[in-house]
Specification:
5-stranded antiparallel β-sheet; binds magnesium ion; binds adenosine-5'-diphosphate; alpha+beta; 12 strands; 5-stranded mixed β-sheet; Heat Shock Protein 90
């Protein structure tokens, strides 16, 4: 994820919000990566699953191992302490005769405790020999302990229970260590009887720190193993998904290039697996597509050739016919009325024929890619005025008011004036013919890079569905519509090609009864791409969304009503 360099200072100044904004940005980047890559998704899912499964297993294992370790150790401790207690009791019993004084007894007790300090398995433990309270004894000997500071670990509850029980009891304790957390230990207690002195409680304190160390070591090993396993799992899934995703990526790349028109692009076929099958099928598809497109291209090239050849071939006989018709036309006064009328019709239809042929030839020049832009620096206002002048005669004959709204200053642009004038002429003739006597407005506007010319009429108009087809060749909204000037149906198709040749565009808006608006947008210099037009295509006064017209219910459309009325009138 990248952060645009320019955004840093602003963010630093904002201070508090900066961290959160950056986090949100980073978060969005991560989400985009996650959604955009199948591989990342699979690997992270596998990792999450692996971590969950391994931590569950690790927890279970370490729990079982801890239990096993402590149980073993405890049974060993209990056996050890029982036999030690028995030995101590035996010594006390055996020495029943040779005690004379309290110091003698205390020496005996200290002696026994000293011996008990080392257990049966050679391990050191703390021993506490505590006199049971409230004894009706004449002799009293002090308690014997090996670690006075740890006597407090033996709670009075434990002592009471030990006195009452005739088996040994045990209790887990935490043995305090200076400046460190306490280490686990076990206190085992039972009673012994010292003849003539009384009952004593004998406790052993065992240290379990070595078990704890063992457990910690095992846990470390388990954790290390889990981390290694997760890493291996991640690497494996990454490798596996990469092998699966790479051919898909390759296919996407090739498909993109195919879509860009590089029809000979193919996928590499490796091996015999499913991926190879995918690549082979993909290539077969591309092959047949290429074949089909070539066939269609050939066909359309042939058709274009045919149209162009036919048009050229027709030119010569047409010239001859034209000359003959001229002669007939000029001598029509001497003909009988029926023949004179025919001569007039012939000339009129010849005009149309010539116009059609000229348009056909122009169209085939566009199709063959032979149309060239003959651009020059011109004030576009002049071009507009020229086209309006040419159309004014037709407008006058139709009773249509023609107005032009031009900027006060020059609109200099690199355009092909012949083509721009042809576009405008066609737009104006169309508008005047369909205006039904309403005014037609031409507007020119420009900004730094782009200029726009709009031709707006308020005549019959078209439905949006019809408007979609106005640039189609030979398309007419109503072929039966009375045509006086009589276009060829190629006018707007040629106009659009002319606009495209400039790197511009020609758009249409129209509604039945509200007229039509044609907007021509052209770059003022070569190399400028058009983003927005200085003029709007749709008129502001248009009623915004129309209710959708159901089939056969045209009258439900309010905009259509005045149009129908007017047509009937
Ligand atoms: N201003 C307009 N108002 C209504 N319909 C229009 C207008 N301009 C064009 N059209 C429709 O688009 C069709 C195609 O126009 P065009 O390509 O110029 O061919 P032509 O003018 O030779 O018929 C016209 O026949 C007409 O039905
Ligand atoms: Mg036309």
């Amino acid at each position: 994820m990248s952060v645009a360099a320019g955004t840093w200072p602003a963010r630093v100044r904002r201070g508090a919000g900066r961290g959160r904004a950056w986090l949100a940005l980073a978060g969005r980047g991560v989400v985009a990566r996650w959604r955009g890559s199948l591989q990342i998704r699979v690997v992270t899912s596998a990792l999450a699953f692996g971590v969950a499964a391994l931590s569950g297993l690790g927890w279970f294992l370490s729990d079982r191992i801890a239990d096993g370790l402590y149980e073993d150790r405890l049974s060993q401790i209990l056996g050890d302490s029982a036999s030690s207690t028995q030995q101590a009791q035996e010594r006390f019993t055996a020495s029943a005769g040779d005690r004379a004084s309290v110091p003698d007894v205390e020496r005996l007790l200290a002696d026994v405790v000293g011996q008990l300090r080392v257990g049966g398995s050679g391990e050191r433990r703390d021993v506490f020999l505590l006199a049971a309270p409230n004894q009706p004894s004449r002799t009293f000997a002090n308690d014997q302990v090996t670690a006075a500071d740890r006597v407090s670990l033996i709670t009075s509850e434990l002592r009471a229970q030990v006195r009452e029980s005739d088996v040994q009891l045990w209790m887990p304790v935490g043995i305090p260590v200076d400046g460190e957390p306490p280490v686990p230990g076990v206190v085992v207690g039972s009673t012994v009887t010292v003849p003539t002195v009384g009952t004593y409680e004998l406790y052993y304190l065992y240290d379990l720190s070595s078990e704890q160390q063992t457990l910690a070591f095992i846990q470390r090993v388990l954790l290390l193993g889990a981390v290694a396993l997760v890493a291996v799992l991640g690497a494996l899934t990454w490798l596996v998904t990469r092998t699966a995703v790479q051919p898909v990526r390759a296919a996407a790349r090739v498909a993109e290039r195919l879509a860009d028109g590089l029809l000979s692009e193919r996928m590499a076929v490796r091996g015999e697996d499913e991926m190879a099958t995918l690549a082979r099928s993909f290539n077969e598809m591309a092959e047949s597509l290429q074949l089909q497109i070539h066939r269609m291209e050939d066909l359309s090239r042939l058709q274009r050739r045919f149209v162009s050849d036919v048009s050229h071939e027709l030119k010569t006989p047409l010239t001859t016919i034209r000359m003959a018709a001229e002669i007939l036309h000029s001598s029509r006064d001497r003909l009988d009325p029926a023949a004179a009328r025919s001569a007039e019709l012939l000339t009129a239809q010849l005009d149309r024929f010539e116009a059609l042929l000229a348009d056909l030839l122009e169209m085939s020049r566009f199709d063959a890619g032979a149309a060239m832009l003959d651009a020059e620096r011109r004030d576009v206002r002049e071009v507009v005025v020229g086209a309006v002048d040419q159309a004014s005669a037709l407008a006058a004959s139709k009773g249509v008011w023609l107005s032009a709204d031009l900027p006060a200053e020059q609109v200099i642009a690199d355009v092909d004036p012949r083509r721009v004038e042809r576009i405008l002429r066609n737009l104006l003739v169309n508008a005047i013919e369909h205006a039904e006597g309403n005014p037609v407005e031409v507007t020119l506007a420009a900004d730094e890079n782009v200029l726009a010319i709009r031709v707006r009429d308020h005549g019959v108009g078209m439905t949006p569905e019809e408007a979609e087809h106005v640039f189609d060749r030979f398309w007419r909204a109503d072929p039966a519509r009375a045509r006086t000037t009589g276009g060829t149906g190629l006018g707007l198709a040629i106009s659009q090609e002319d606009a495209r040749l400039h790197g511009g565009r020609l758009e249409v808006w129209s509604r039945p009864g509200l007229g039509a608006s044609f907007l021509l947008t052209l770059p003022r210099r070569a190399g400028i791409t058009i983003e927005a037009s200085p003029l709007s295509l749709e008129p502001e006064e248009a009623p915004v969304p129309e209710p959708r017209v159901e089939e056969g219910a045209a009258a439900a459309d309010p905009a259509a009503v005045p149009d129908l009325d007017r047509l009937e009138a």
